[in-house]
Structures are given as C-alpha cells and as structure tokens.
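Quick note —
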Amino acid sequence: MNSSTRVILNTTAQYMKTFVNIILTLFSARLILEALGVTDFGLYSLLAGVTSMLAFATNALASTTQRFLSYHQGKSNIEQLKDIFANSFYIQLSLGLLTLLILLFLTPYLFEGFLNVPIERLFAAKWTYIIVTVILFVTFLCTPYRAVLISHENIIYLTVIDVVDGILKVVFAVALYYITYDRLIGYAIFLLSIQLFNLLVVAIYAICKYEECSIPSIK
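Predicted structure written out below.
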C-alpha cells in the first residue's frame, strides 16, 4: 500500500470511527442513565472524573513513544526499537502502579468528607472507585502497544477495536437491566472487562505482528 492510499484509508477510518462511536455513546448513555438511575449515574460520573483527570498522561506518553518508534523505524534498527518499547513498557507499568497505589491510598480521605456520597450508597461507591482505578492502570499497560500500532500507521486495526469497544458498551448497557445485584458495581465491572479485552486484543496482535514488541532488559 502506497503512502497516499494509506493516508486516505486511515483518515476515512478515523472519521467513520468518530461518527459511529458518537451514535453508540448517545444510545448507550440513555440506556445507562435509565438502568442506573440519576443518583448512581451521577455517582459513577463523579468517581470516574476523579481518575479520568489523569488519563491525559497516557495519551501524552503514547505520543512520545510513537515518535521515538517512528524515528528509529526509519533507521531500520530493530534492536533500538526493542529497547524503546521495553523501556516504554516498564515506564508505563511503573507509573500505572504508582498511580494505582496513590489513588487507593486516598480512598478514605476522598470518601470521608471530600466527595459528597449518600451514606446508603457509600459501599457501592467505594468499590466502584477501586474498579475505576484498576481500569486506569490497565489503560497505562495498553498505551505502549497502541503506540506501536500508531507508529506503524496501523490505524485500521485500532479503529476496529475502538468501534467494538463502543458496541460492547451498548451491549453491557442493555445487560444492566438484567443484573440482580448492585448495578453501579456491575457497570464498573463491565467497563473493566471491556478495558481488559482492549488490552488483550491490542497486545496479542502487536506481539504477534511486530518484532519490537518484546521485553528485553532495560537499557
């Protein structure tokens, strides 16, 4: 595939992904609001907002890793690419663990006066917060693999994964109506399973397709 064709396909895929995911998000948001109710929907938005403020860091790290990988791909230096990927993976793992530990350490302080959570929903809110922090950690782990795919301009595969992500959220939004236990915790578990799915499909594909996706010693 020549460069111009790749640009056209990648751009078209990105626009299609954006359009499809907007439709899916609007549809799923209505279902989730109806299934959770106003209070639990607001609680999840509040708790997710506490951790999503840190999500910008994963995007910045992905862009930085992608630039280094793209530069050394031009030099066809596979050993250097392996070192860059390995160092990026360890950095993301370390930052993810550090962020996870800090957020978990702050749990009692957040729920004892800082966040306005109804007493009767305090147990569910705490567990939802813990699950959301794990989702953030999984996002950190997924970042270096996504950076590899972007550096190879494999936008089509990422687009498919993102669209499947949106479809799964709609499916799980419908499944909320059939949950017999706490729906707020169930919704958080659903989102964690989607993020784990994203990590698996991106990591397995990148490891199988690209030689630099190995974990040698840090250099």
